[in-house]
Structures are given as structure tokens and as C-alpha cells.
Design brief:
Its main location: membrane. InterPro entries: LipA_acyltrans. It comes from Polynucleobacter arcticus. It is found in: Cell inner membrane. The protein has 10 helices and 9 strands. It has one domain (2-290). Helix content is 46%, strand content 17%. It has helices at 2-19, 22-38, 42-54, 60-86, 89-93, 126-133, 148-158, 172-181, 213-221, 255-272; strands at residues 96-100, 110-113, 138-142, 164-167, 184-187, 198-203, 206-211, 224-232, 239-246. The chain is an alpha/beta fold. Strand 6 (198-203) and strand 7 form a beta hairpin. It is globular. It starts with a helix and ends in a 23-residue tail after the last helix.
Length: 295
């Protein structure tokens, strides 16, 4: 009974948020992020440790400043999900600019390699634009949530304009079919999902457990691999989604080298806007050769 009440209360809160003026919503998100940065928590400790590991050249004051900036932007991105999940097409189209170096309407098989900036959910907006722009639909893996109720709801919301969310657990064949049909396939491999189908390659000069899905799928399907970076607009008005030309000489016969190359690109992007990366994730949780977790 209480669980049902809390579930539907959560949906009601999202509907309330989406009804707010956009500037009010963003200000609320910044405020929540500011408060979160002040509260001692496991996630705050994870952010602190990640920043210390990746930016050893920063002093304590610089790390603390970056940590607070990150929480501020994370708070904004969290409340903006109310629009991404429940907003109408007009709201979504006003929320994102798409800059692409490839013709997205040519329906060539492509894997769009996303990364975990705080605005990653903004890439889902592409599915709302696809029909009007003449683009194929978007497909991508999703990670199951602990709550079956919200797991189902969020998949429904993400797919409401024709997108296709594929359960990450055991559905690679479905993703291969989508690639061969010409769908946009969005994959964000910069995450530690365990040791299966992954390898340790450098990320900020640290051996980091990274999934190898992109290299393997590109080799199986012959799909082009393009980077897709979704960042926050600096004027507090939505997102910019930038899609690159296909990567040259990708994939190769060396899965580890391909995966390391992607990590290098991710690192370059993060250094341009370090506060926007998703530092709350335990990126270095699994370690090689039984090395202790830094968390």
C-alpha cells in the first residue's frame, strides 16, 4: 500500500515539475544540487574520490570547487528529466540543438557512442524529433532499475515517440537487428557493469573496467561508429547534441585497443567540461588482479 502511494506520488511530483516554467525548474535543480553538495553522503564521497583520482594535479580547494559545480549541474539535469520523460514534442524540440557531421536521414547503419555526462538523458530527445526530421528511430540499451514500477514507467516514457529501449541483460541480438534496419543505436560504454564482456583499459591513466560492446557490435554489423556528446547549454536553456563523423579505422582486430581509444576520446571531452561528467558513478569499482576498490 505504502509502496504504491510512494510510486504514484513520485509520478505526481514529476508531473508537477514538468508544469513549472523552465527557468524556475532549472533554478530548483541548481538549488537541490547545492544542498546535496553540503550533505555528507556515500555519493558525495564517491564524487570526491573520483575527482581526486582523475585530477591529481588539482589541490583540495580546486577539487572541492569542482565537486560543488558537479552537484549543481547534476541537480539541474535530474529535474530536467521531468520534461524529457513527460514533456510534449514542442517542449523537447525547444530543449535541444542537434549538430551532426553526418546525414542522419540516410539510414546507414550507425552506432552513436554516447558518454555519461549529466545531460546524457537529453539524447533520448532524438526519438521525439525523428519522425518530423525523417530520421530512423533510436534504439539503445537500458539498465534495469531496482523499482519494477519505475523501470516500466521510464521505458514507456523513453519510448513514447517511437524510441526502442532494449534490456541490457541478454538482448544483443535485438540490438544487432536494429542496427541492420538502420536505427540509431545509442551506446554509452563508459560505465562499470561488472567483468563480463569488458576489459581493463586506461581512463585518466587508471586501468578501468570498460565494456567492449561498441567494438564487437561494429565488427559484427559493419556499422559506422560516431561519437555523440550531449552537453548542457551554458545559458541554462537545454542541451546540445553533437554527432561526429565516423571514426576512422574503427573497429580494428584489437578490441582492447578500440575500447582504449574510446576512453581516450571520453577523457578529452571530460577535460573540456569536467563538472558535467557523471562523477557519482563508481567508475573504478572493479579492479584488476584483486586490487582493492578505492571506494
Amino acid at each position: 500500500m505504502f509502496k504504491n502511494f510512494s510510486n504514484y506520488s513520485g509520478v505526481a511530483l514529476l508531473r508537477l515539475l514538468v508544469s513549472l516554467p523552465y527557468k524556475t525548474l532549472v533554478s530548483l535543480g541548481y538549488g537541490l544540487g547545492y544542498i546535496a553538495a553540503l550533505i555528507p553522503s556515500d555519493r558525495n564521497r564517491v564524487v570526491q574520490k573520483n575527482l581526486e583520482l582523475c585530477f591529481p594535479e588539482f589541490n583540495a580547494q580546486e577539487i572541492n570547487r569542482l565537486r560543488k559545480q558537479h552537484w549543481r549541474l547534476l541537480g539541474r539535469s535530474l529535474v530536467e528529466k521531468s520534461i524529457i520523460w513527460l514533456g510534449n514534442k514542442k517542449q523537447l524540440s525547444n530543449m535541444i540543438e542537434v549538430h551532426s557531421e553526418v546525414d542522419l536521414s540516410d539510414r546507414k547503419p550507425r552506432i552513436l557512442v554516447n558518454m555519461h555526462f549529466v545531460g546524457i538523458e537529453g539524447s533520448i530527445i532524438l526519438s521525439a524529433l525523428a519522425e518530423d526530421k525523417g530520421w530512423p528511430r533510436t534504439s539503445g540499451f537500458f539498465q534495469r532499475m531496482k523499482s519494477p514500477f519505475f523501470n516500466k514507467k521510464i521505458v514507456e516514457w523513453r519510448n513514447r515517440f517511437g524510441g526502442n529501449s532494449i534490456d541490457r541483460q541478454g538482448n544483443s541480438i535485438a540490438l544487432i537487428r536494429e542496427i541492420r534496419k538502420g536505427s540509431f543505436i545509442i551506446i554509452a560504454p563508459d560505465i562499470d557493469l561488472g567483468l563480463k564482456d569488458s576489459t581493463f583499459v586506461p581512463f585518466f591513466n587508471i586501468p578501468t573496467n570498460t565494456i567492449t560492446t561498441v567494438s564487437r557490435l561494429a565488427k559484427i554489423t559493419g556499422a559506422q561508429v560516431c561519437m555523440m556528446i550531449t552537453t548542457l547549454k551554458e545559458n541554462e536553456a537545454g542541451y546540445i547534441c553533437s554527432i561526429s563523423k565516423p571514426l576512422d579505422h574503427f573497429p580494428t582486430e584489437n578490441v582492447d585497443a578500440d575500447t582504449a581509444r574510446l576512453n581516450q576520446i571520453f577523457e578529452q571531452e571530460i577535460r573540456l567540461r569536467p563538472a558535467e561528467y557523471y562523477w557519482v558513478h563508481k567508475r573504478f569499482k572493479n579492479r584488476p588482479l584483486n586490487e582493492a576498490s578505492p571506494y
